[in-house]
Amino acid sequence: MSSTRRGVILRDLLLAHDSAGLTAHHVPSSAQSVREIVLITHVDQILEVGPDSIVLLGEELALGGWVVSVALRYAWERRAAALVVSEQSFSESVIELARRFGVALFTAAVGIDRTALALARQLGALEAGILFRLDALHNRVVRATTIAEVLSEISQELNDAHVQVLVEGIELVSRGERPNDAVTVRSVLADGRRGPELVATVSPSQQAFAEQALARAGMTVRALLLAHELTDLVDAAPLLSFAALAGVREDSAVDDGHPDQAALQRWPPGTPVAAVVLRVVDDVDHRADRIAPVVTSRWREAFPRVPLARMSAGWFAIVPLAHPSAEVDGALQQLADAGLGPLGTALGVAQDPEGTEQVSNLLRRAGLAARLAEAGGPVIDFRRFGLPLVRRLLPAQDAMDLAQTAYPLLMRDPHAADIIATVVAYLDCAGSATAAAERLGVHRNTLQLRLRRAAALGVHLDHPGELLSTHLLLAALDPGSVPTSPSPPIDR
């Protein structure tokens, strides 16, 4: 006789069962699931026992310790949870065998048939309660409109356990806290080893229910993921249309497009915008495709009303400069630091404050800036293209060695940092002392004093043939490694 069920925890079943007629000789410490109650009346039937079952030996079978020992071994091989036999005395070796096999061992004082019926009845009652909880959870989950809401419902049902959606091992959304001494339950939401996963970290006593809860919620989470992908695609349709008109293909880099529509002067018309390019550094094994759900989710959090369009090894977007996320530069840098940098994504931006630039040109500039940017590093703005380029061509250590050789007096001066910053600002401003002073926030006379000090230390700005090399070298220096002093006598 057997009664197949969805499964409950053995300890829960024992607590619910009127266990006055059961004597426990060994109960494993781990949480074991019970899905079936099986009464064995013939020896051969034990070979048909399924996993997670409680096996009860008919009274005519369990006539001695050696029969119980054999039954324990078969129960272990069939991955049964427990063995119940009629009341009798055991030697310590039989109980030790149960410990070694990890199979719970009980004796029944009220008769095996009656015990089997009672356990099956209680298993059904417990499962009915679990089904009621699962149905109630399912009804709440299907009404959720976001993945975060789904995870919150699951977490609450699992005593605030930690529940998350992973994509490529990267956390997309999570809720709850990890309990101590926890086990991990996983439900794959799509075919393939790299598909998204719904993962719960729960206490061992919650494992069986968590498996069923994740299975119930998996379809809803998958549907919401697909809905997000569809929404992103619909939102990005205008950008994709623009990209097609401007010659920016999905399989190309943004800096090799050739616009074929002269009428495309700006988009949207007359609106100050910034072109943003997100480039996956070292896009091996189609990494951009695999992390796309995470990237679009992070982008949606930072710019909920700005679509993101897919392109080769990355994405691009057109962000209005009047976007409610305040300063675009700050929002992009926060996005890079908190969400995209750790994924190996670098950001480049090109701004058009007047709204007069052709957007395809902005995209190419942003693409070049993104190629200079480093994953996890600062967002590179095309307006400040020079310094990243110089530092890429001339690493800081090489620049320091060259500067110490070319300008030894300057590099030994305690105020070298101030002097170098002044020279670089002066050259950045094309020799305008007024503009350089405003940039540095110092008086024009102070700037002139520092320039004269630079000349005294060997930095000559009246030799046109040396200006370019001087500018590139000093701009490439790491300010943190240049001597500085809290008291600047050169400003007096």
UniProtKB/TrEMBL annotation:
Pfam families assigned: HTH_30 (PF13556)
Cited Gene3D superfamilies: PucR C-terminal helix-turn-helix domain (1.10.10.2840)
Residue span(s) of domain PucR C-terminal helix-turn-helix: 420-476
Listed transmembrane segments: none
PANTHER family the record matches: CARBOHYDRATE DIACID REGULATOR, PUCR FAMILY TRANSCRIPTIONAL REGULATOR
Protein name: Helix-turn-helix domain-containing protein
